[in-house]
Design a protein that fits this description.
Elements lengths: L1 H26 L11 E4 L6 H13 L8 E4 L6 H9 L6 E4 L10 E5 L9 E7 L7 E10 L3 H7 L15 E3 H12 L6
């Protein structure tokens, strides 16, 4: 009788463990789709000029720079909500170019083109700052429109191209890698 009672208790425990495991697995978010991974803020005072100055500097330094024509984009087909959803849809696929430092701006990042297809030969890019004093926060400052950049886009997609035509400071991060870098900077383990 005692052994039967122990057996019954064991069965109940096993059933409880299995049920808990099923519940946990069904409620877990699919890998790579954690929509709460970061916050996207829209800058109240957009800073686009530092990005444009950086591009101008790169163009003067390298005659083969990838973006022959760059202009400030006054509008985009993306609303702030759509941009946020687009970036959060899969953090492992959304990539950023590191453009280096400028005075007053700790880190400068250029988001992957927000339009996958060029419109009239132009590509719209989201300008984003990621600051290590704002963990897991991206700050959107607006858009620029460029022509060219095909090889950069190829790089972002993982294709190989001649290194002599690479963008300066051309580190490419996924969103998750970007925040890993910021955490390392905050801990003093890495310096750009």
């Amino acid at each position: 009788m005692r052994s039967f009672s122990l057996f019954l208790v064991l069965c109940i425990w096993v059933i409880g463990v299995i049920a808990a495991g099923d519940e946990a697995s069904s409620s877990a978010a699919p890998a790579g789709r954690n929509l709460d991974f970061f916050t996207l803020k829209i800058a109240r005072r957009p800073e686009i000029d530092p990005f444009l100055k950086k591009f101008k500097h790169l163009q003067e330094k390298d005659s083969q720079f990838q973006f022959p024509h760059i202009r400030r984009a006054t509008s985009s087909t993306w609303t702030s909500t759509e941009l946020s959803n687009n970036l959060k849809q899969n953090p492992n696929d959304r990539r950023f170019l590191f453009l280096g430092k400028e005075p007053g701006i700790p880190e400068m990042y250029l988001a992957v083109p927000v339009h996958s297809k060029a419109i009239n030969g132009e590509i719209f890019w989201s300008l984003i700052h990621a600051h290590n004093h704002q963990p897991n926060t991206l700050v959107h400052h607006g858009y620029i429109s460029t022509t060219g950049g095909d090889l950069i886009i190829s790089k972002l997609k993982g294709a190989k191209y001649p290194e002599t035509r690479a963008i300066e400071s051309g580190d490419v991060f996924t969103i998750e890698e970007l925040f890993d870098e910021l955490r390392m900077m905050e801990a003093g383990l890495w310096h750009p």
